Amino acid sequence: MKMDKLLSDKGFTLLEMILVLSVVCVLLLFGGAIVSKNKTAFIYQMKIIRENITETQIKAVSEKDRKQIQFLSDRVLIDDKILKYPKEMQCSFLGFHFTEKGTISKAGTTTCTMEGITRKMVFQLGSGQSDIR
After folding, report:
1. What fold characterizes domain 15-132?
2. N or C: which end of the chain has fewer CB within 10 A?
């Protein structure tokens, strides 16, 4: 009678626990990979924008001309170029220009989001360096 009572107790077997833990591990692995892929694509897009802005700064110096930069919600206007963001990406408004010496007219920060991930692009006074945070 004692043996029957032991086998009929409610609970999980070792096999059931291993199966549940395996499923949880697989879900965490693939879920983390999707977030990581989105984050990588987002940061890559931000770096492309920053490279284009740096090229425009160099152009301002070489052409001895003022170059305008304007971040809008769905695109960034870089002098005579328009860079559209991926449809999932949006940035806050920011406008400034590079002088003919390559310095920035005013410091500023734009906040960009894409699929729940947020990053800031900061433009500093002086040499007009930018940083993604």
Report:
1. minor pseudopilin epsh fold (3.55.40)
2. N
